Amino acid sequence: MLVRLDTKFDGGTLTVTIAGELDLYTAAQASEQIDAAIEENRVRLLVLDLASVSFLDSSGLGVILGRYKKIRHRGGTMQIAGASPVVTRILKMAFLDRIVPIVPGTAGRVTGPRAGGGGTKS
User: Fold this and answer.
1) d(CA 107, CA 99)
2) Taking the C-alpha atoms of 76, 81, 83 and 85 in order, what is their torsion angle to the nearest 10 degrees?
3) How is residue 95 annotated by DSSP?
4) Residue 27 · residue 9 · CB < 8 Å
5) Are 15 and 7 within 8 A, CB to CB?
6) What does the pLDDT look like over 7-30, one tens digit per residue?
7) What is the C-alpha separation between 105 and 77, in angstroms, rounded?
8) I want to staple 107 with a disulfide (CB 3.0 to 4.6 A). Which of 26, 29, 49, 75 is the partner?
């Protein structure tokens, strides 16, 4: 297993829990799965739960930035939750923290002004 995604939609919030490596080899798969979940639901807030991401490279950063652009184009917002200190450092080095809020917590425990969780849709 290189990457696994679990999606949950509840009340306008789509939470995508990503586990494994988000890199060149898994970026296309991750993007396609997240995009399909966005298209399937009326998403106002996209939360990417990165608590179980063990590796992130520039392709993984591209996945995050691409989903940010997609959700913003649809009038929504995005947050990153549960990122480890190492992943958070990579996000900050790429200045993604300046456009996508990094919030404490993980799926189901996300904190912040527009947070949500619950319900299941896979």
Assistant:
1) 20
2) 110
3) T
4) no
5) yes
6) 999 999 999 999 999 999 999 999
7) 17
8) 49
Please check whether residue 32 is in contact with residue 55, taking contact to mean a CB–CB distance below 8 angstroms. Answer: no
Going by pLDDT thresholds of 50, 70 and 90, the confidence category of residue 105 is confident
Domain residue ranges in the chain: 3-103
Q: Are strands 45-56 and 3-10 parallel, antiparallel or unpaired?
A: unpaired
> Mean of the pLDDT values across residues 33-62?
96
Q: Are strands 45-56 and 102-103 parallel, antiparallel or unpaired?
A: unpaired
3-state helix, strand, coil in the chain (%, to 5): 35, 30, 35
For residues 96 and 100, give the distance between their C-alpha atoms in angstroms, rounded to a whole number.
6
Q: What is the CATH number of domain 3-103?
A: 3.30.750.24
